[in-house]
């Protein structure tokens, strides 16, 4: 029997760093064996896997500060992570670095029904915030499909959206204040509890930073009143392009739905197998449109919406008559990503944006790309804001299958750019899309982004390797330099 080779000895600097961690974290919350590290090697994009040097599980903001300061002192890169639902490789660890698992920092510290805010820790689960606010007839509006498990820290890091971001906006529209540990271990407060801010929008700068600006440890979130009523309609189509055209027709009326979502035949097949929502059989596409708000206004808009949908060529139209029917409509949509695993061993979840006016064209082009590559693509997306989520199906056991899937994914991203859109709507750039960032932005734009990055993290320790392609102007882990948010003109340390 062949014996496995013993693991290579750790460098002296790594051993010294681990020894320092042992002085801060008990053994139960400091993980370093291969078996302990294995669950943290990847996030929702499992094509990328890296084993970190160690994982720490802090239970207080002081422990987060201590961990980051140790990383800064020893020049060790670090990555913060919540539930690991990122779909762009954004929370994949760094080889030789520390992963800071934030799940135990999950408290909802305060719900203020008068100011309509919630103060939460980063490990708080998205849907838990709305449950805590529900007794006050309030809720937290951003609703990514993974909301039963994804955490607020990750939502803020990637500026998550969701089905209802059409009306309510992205995460950035609901974050009022952030307490963060900067990459040198300094604790700063950005924004606050007020809806009105003075000076630079620091919370806006921080939201969507993909972990490059340190570790957030507390958030002030804006809550919104629960709508008085909902009206939800489901329309089935023979062609997915017709469903896309219906979206443009709805928008042209001036009606502002809470959500507009489309699923194609493959996605419908997967959802039906997983949660049995009872979608129309043999439909090639389904459009879900939901109105919300005060009863009189919603009923008036819903009458007009029904006329538009029926004139759009829908072969079947259903109206949710009860809250249970409405929730069943949404259960199918919300489960679509995970449900696709029932019809394919592996899949890539893509994320791009096109203008609504070119949605139908984009869907037709994706269908052509799917046929030309011989790879199935299931389409599930936030139609109201043109945020596409093509699910590229492949079998990772077949040699070269992942490579072929990634080529198709890249062509879809370039299609979005050609149509005047973006390479990401809410999943971030992470590892997956960083090669495409220079195709979307010019060198001047990228230079400004990198200057801001260097100002906040001159050593390049916080989630290095994500978003930016390595280059001479990018921060290098361990490289010395000044650390000033203030030199970037963003914050005063007085």
Describe this structure in words.
With 494 residues, this protein is an alpha+beta fold. The protein folds into 4 domains: 12-101, Uridine Diphospho-n-acetylenolpyruvylglucosamine Reductase, domain 2; 108-225, Uridine Diphospho-n-acetylenolpyruvylglucosamine Reductase, domain 3; 227-332, 2-Layer Sandwich (Alpha-Beta Plaits); 344-425, Alpha-Beta Plaits, CATH 3.30.70.2740. Helices cover 33% and strands 19% of the residues. The chain has 16 helices and 19 strands. It has helices at residues 12-22, 34-37, 61-74, 126-133, 152-158, 165-168, 202-206, 240-252, 265-275, 295-311, 323-334, 336-339, 359-373, 401-418, 437-440, 443-456, and strands spanning 30-31, 54-56, 78-81, 98-101, 108-112, 117-120, 138-139, 175-181, 187-191, 215-222, 224-225, 229-237, 259-264, 285-293, 316-319, 346-349, 352-353, 377-382, 387-394. Strands 12, 13, 14, 15, 16, 17, 18 and 19 form an 8-stranded antiparallel sheet that branches. It has a 5-stranded antiparallel sheet with strand order 5-6-10-8-9. Strand 5 (108-112) and strand 6 form a beta hairpin. The longest helix is centred in the last third of the chain and has 18 residues, at 401-418. The termini are far apart. Residues 471-494 have low confidence and may be disordered.
């Amino acid at each position: 029997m062949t014996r496995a080779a013993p693991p290579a000895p750790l460098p002296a600097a790594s051993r010294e760093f681990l020894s320092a961690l042992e002085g801060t974290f008990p053994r139960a919350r400091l993980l370093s064996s291969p078996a302990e590290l294995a669950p943290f090697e990847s996030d929702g994009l499992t094509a990328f896997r890296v084993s970190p040097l160690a994982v720490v599980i802090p239970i207080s903001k002081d422990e987060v500060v201590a961990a980051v300061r140790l990383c800064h002192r020893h020049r060790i890169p670090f990555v913060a992570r919540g539930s690991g639902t990122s779909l762009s490789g954004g929370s994949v660890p760094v080889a030789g670095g520390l992963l800071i698992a934030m799940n135990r920092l999950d408290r909802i510290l305060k719900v203020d029904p008068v100011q309509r805010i919630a103060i939460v820790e980063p490990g708080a689960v998205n849907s838990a915030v709305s449950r805590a606010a529900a007794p006050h007839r309030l809720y937290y509006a951003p609703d990514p499909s993974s909301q039963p498990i994804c955490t607020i820290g990750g939502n803020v890091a990637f500026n998550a959206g969701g089905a209802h971001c059409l009306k309510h906006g992205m995460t950035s529209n609901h974050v009022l204040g952030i307490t963060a540990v900067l990459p040198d271990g300094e604790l700063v407060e950005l924004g606050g509890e007020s809806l009105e801010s003075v000076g630079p929008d620091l919370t806006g700068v921080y939201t969507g930073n993909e972990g490059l600006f340190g570790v957030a440890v507390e958030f002030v979130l804006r809550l919104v009143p629960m709508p008085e009523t909902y009206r939800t309609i489901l329309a089935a189509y023979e062609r997915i392009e017709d469903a896309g055209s219906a979206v443009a027709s709805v928008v042209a009326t001036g009606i502002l739905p809470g959500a507009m979502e489309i699923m194609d035949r493959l996605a419908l097949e997967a959802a039906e197998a997983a949660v049995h929502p009872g979608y129309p059989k043999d439909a090639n596409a389904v459009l879900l449109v939901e109105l919300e708000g005060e009863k009189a206004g919603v009923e008036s808009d819903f009458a007009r919406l029904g006329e538009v949908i029926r004139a759009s060529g829908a072969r079947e139209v259903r109206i949710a008559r009860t809250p249970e029917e409405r929730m069943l409509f949404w259960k199918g949509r919300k489960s679509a990503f995970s449900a696709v695993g029932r019809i394919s061993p592996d899949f890539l979840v893509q994320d791009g944006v096109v203008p609504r006016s070119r949605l139908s064209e984009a869907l037709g082009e994706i269908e052509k790309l799917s046929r030309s590559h011989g790879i199935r693509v299931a389409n599930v997306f936030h139609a109201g804001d043109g945020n596409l989520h093509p699910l590229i199906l492949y079998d990772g056991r077949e040699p070269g299958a992942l490579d072929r899937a990634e080529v198709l994914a890249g062509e879809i991203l370039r299609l979005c750019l050609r149509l005047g859109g973006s390479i990401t709507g809410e999943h971030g750039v992470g590892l997956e899309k960083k090669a495409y960032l220079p195709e979307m932005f010019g060198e001047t734009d990228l230079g400004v982004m990198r200057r801001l990055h260097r100002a906040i993290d001159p050593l390049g320790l916080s989630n290095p390797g994500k978003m930016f392609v390595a280059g001479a102007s990018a921060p290098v882990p361990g490289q010395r330099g000044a650390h000033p948010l203030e030199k970037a003109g963003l914050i005063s340390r007085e």
